[in-house]
Specification:
4 copies of one chain form a homotetramer. Chain A has 135 residues and is α+β, with helices and mostly antiparallel strands. Helices cover 24% and strands 36% of the residues of chain A.
Amino acid sequence: MNGRELLWPVRVYYEDTDAGGVVYHASHLKYFERARTEWLRALGFEQDRLIREERVVFPVRRLEIDYLKPVRFNEQLTVSTVMTTLSTTRITFTQTLLRPDGETVAAAQVLVVCVDMDTFRPRPIPESILAEINA
Amino acid sequence: MNGRELLWPVRVYYEDTDAGGVVYHASHLKYFERARTEWLRALGFEQDRLIREERVVFPVRRLEIDYLKPVRFNEQLTVSTVMTTLSTTRITFTQTLLRPDGETVAAAQVLVVCVDMDTFRPRPIPESILAEINA
Amino acid sequence: MNGRELLWPVRVYYEDTDAGGVVYHASHLKYFERARTEWLRALGFEQDRLIREERVVFPVRRLEIDYLKPVRFNEQLTVSTVMTTLSTTRITFTQTLLRPDGETVAAAQVLVVCVDMDTFRPRPIPESILAEINA
Amino acid sequence: MNGRELLWPVRVYYEDTDAGGVVYHASHLKYFERARTEWLRALGFEQDRLIREERVVFPVRRLEIDYLKPVRFNEQLTVSTVMTTLSTTRITFTQTLLRPDGETVAAAQVLVVCVDMDTFRPRPIPESILAEINA
């Protein structure tokens, strides 16, 4: 974590690619989710503990993504994750997928909502998380 | 194909779900892509033939998606696919994921670009496809 | 269902393939699991109901698979599923992935175990399922 | 790389799990393939270069896997990869998925074949790779 930005490395394996020879467009969403998980971890929160102790999960409510460049098998990339807005129940992230030379190959806006694990109804983000985000 | 709308059934299997108990947010993109493949097939075009004979593929350039309702394991759903705009090199689709009672559980705008398979540079959509779309 | 064999169609979409130009080796397992789900459904059992009412799931305990032929994007295949052995807590299936001309492109032996959803400990297969299998 | 064993870390993310609350059985194959890719890289070989320069890929020909313990979301695991047999065209690996305390949660035997990228016919493993393996 560097200020409010988390940088997280991802390697492109066969599982991520398709017969077009490039990274399949749904795989980018997996990379971005790994990075959001690591963003929460960098703040000190493990999601399996949040599920057990707070019964909260953070599903994606809305996502916009631009695929700017084809990405190839075996490339080493970095995901940049920055929290851009925060409300009682919602967090928005700007996430980009970057080449080693800094070229942006994909860029996304991702809105996640704090919901109760059992009902999937929105509920306030736990105070402990808000405190850490605002620290 | 019903007018300009294609309805395509999808079943939720274990592969599509995650430990939150619902369909993983990247799986919706797979459902939508299956339906776009079937939309092209309903027009008479097989993508493996398009690759071999025309060297074209249709990667996603931009995608916006709203996840409106959690979807559960074993649900039977329908993807609605409608072409909304068409230019020389690009097609935009409105795609929705529907429950049997008509409830929309996810809605997306998907922009695909016709590119040369080898260079991934945009190129005009083949005439034969345009003719069929405009038929 | 035809005697003890269920035949289930699968289409190869982009999501199933990799940059080698063929179906990714983990995708075969997805095809086989869809077919086992449909085998149970053909016997009259919906797995979401089994989870809710009986608290049982059927995870794979052991799997052997031979990949005999490369499978390409857009192929239309059939999964053949036959139950080969049955005990109090376990079922073994022979599953094959077939081309339209009958050529076997992959063949697997899959052992699933009936477990309690909460503890993942083996437990007897529900009587209602055994009765239907033996009918 | 430690003698002939490569240890490679994997984290369980949402993408790897299913609605049963555990890692989906096809995800283990992805973990094992990442580790085989890293095994080749540790020997000095990048698979994208092998494809471009030698036109070879190493698809899985046969795989046996025992799923010994359910694995949960967010676990940190290690893949152990050991080459067990080597012939002109084939390599067999023993791969295990391990918890931090050394518990084996899955164990596999994986046979890969060196094939020509274009024909998918077996061909001899490149000399440079054999030399490095035997070094």
